[in-house]
């Protein structure tokens, strides 16, 4: 006799969020409508936990070092910041942070206090002492075995295969940064400098892409795609965001980028090009992407400040893991 045991996975029970005349509305259906919002909250929780965890770690290393020397934490800080201050002098701190013109009080951020004023001296001293303590903590974190086990939330993968996209950087990298933006979006224009700085720092290790998104097919987006047809998308991208030819002036841009004028003008009037752009943007919206700028890192939506330092930190973590998540 042969007995065959078949194990099957029990299907997960779907949670009910509500009912309409006996028809059930499930929680996963609700979540699908607010996926992006849910991940924004998850990332906010992650950031808050990271800040709290690091504060506890900093307190712990100070306590361990003070106990090891048989002195109080206050004495440790006083001794060590004095030592660090001999190297990182206040004059160097002022110069490195461009404070020659004055300092700003955190409580009064719109007023500049000159360094030779009483208030200016007090604000500078407080800021400088915080800086020295940060340096001390950095030294102690390097000395002791620090391990932070909090994991960043993983948004779902966004499939951009086959979309109208433009690529530069290290093309075959397993790590990618995809910028979904609109030339006419003020926030995108402000973020441009940060994203350009990011490209300059990581272009030899990471794949960078751009996808256009706007409520309508704008002249700027249409021109950039037509320039792309002549192999000049990135020149158009930089020129449009740089602001020296904005709002768009087609003749000026054609001359600036040395495009074939007749070919470019035909493309700008092409229904097919407009249709391709519209279909591209519809596909993005079908995946819940409607806001610009939206950043995808390795095909997952990045929730965080659009600053080169913050995004760079995330990229460094991926690079340290060899591109795996």
UniProtKB/TrEMBL annotation:
<feature type="domain" description="Thioredoxin">
    <location>
        <begin position="104"/>
        <end position="286"/>
    </location>
</feature>
<protein>
    <submittedName>
        <fullName>Thioredoxin-like protein</fullName>
    </submittedName>
</protein>
<dbReference type="Pfam" id="PF13462">
    <property type="entry name" value="Thioredoxin_4"/>
</dbReference>
<dbReference type="InterPro" id="IPR036249">
    <property type="entry name" value="Thioredoxin-like_sf"/>
</dbReference>
<dbReference type="InterPro" id="IPR012336">
    <property type="entry name" value="Thioredoxin-like_fold"/>
</dbReference>
<dbReference type="InterPro" id="IPR013766">
    <property type="entry name" value="Thioredoxin_domain"/>
</dbReference>
């Amino acid at each position: 006799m042969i007995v065959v045991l078949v194990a099957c996975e029990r299907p997960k029970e779907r949670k009910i969020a509500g009912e309409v005349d006996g028809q059930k509305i499930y929680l996963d259906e609700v979540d699908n409508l607010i996926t992006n919002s849910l991940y924004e909250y998850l990332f906010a929780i992650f950031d808050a936990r990271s800040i709290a965890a690091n504060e506890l770690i900093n307190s712990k290393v100070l306590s361990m070092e003070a106990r090891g020397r048989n002195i109080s934490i206050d004495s440790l800080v006083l001794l060590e910041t004095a030592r660090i201050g001999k190297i990182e002098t206040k004059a160097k701190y002022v110069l490195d942070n461009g404070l020659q013109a004055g300092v700003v009080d955190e409580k009064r951020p719109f007023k500049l206090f000159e360094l030779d004023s009483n208030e200016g001296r007090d604000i500078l001293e407080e800021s400088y002492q915080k800086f020295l303590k940060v340096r001390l903590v950095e030294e102690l974190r390097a000395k002791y075995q620090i391990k932070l086990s909090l994991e960043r939330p993983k948004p779902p993968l966004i499939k951009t295969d086959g979309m109208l996209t433009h690529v530069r950087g290290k093309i075959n990298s397993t790590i990618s940064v995809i910028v979904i933006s609109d030339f006419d979006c003020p926030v995108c224009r402000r973020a441009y400098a940060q994203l350009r700085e990011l490209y300059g720092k990581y272009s030899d290790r990471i794949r960078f892409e751009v996808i256009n998104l706007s409520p309508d097919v704008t002249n700027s987006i249409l021109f950039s795609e037509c320039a792309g047809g002549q192999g000049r998308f990135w020149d158009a991208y930089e020129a449009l965001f740089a602001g020296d030819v904005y709002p768009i002036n087609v003749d000026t841009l054609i001359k600036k980028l040395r495009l074939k004028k007749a070919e470019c003008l035909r493309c700008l009037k092409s229904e097919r090009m407009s249709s391709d752009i519209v279909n591209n943007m519809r596909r993005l919206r079908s995946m819940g992407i409607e806001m610009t700028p939206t950043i995808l890192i390795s095909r997952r939506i990045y929730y965080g400040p659009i600053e080169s330092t913050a995004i760079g930190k995330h990229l460094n973590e991926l690079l340290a893991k060899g591109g795996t998540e």
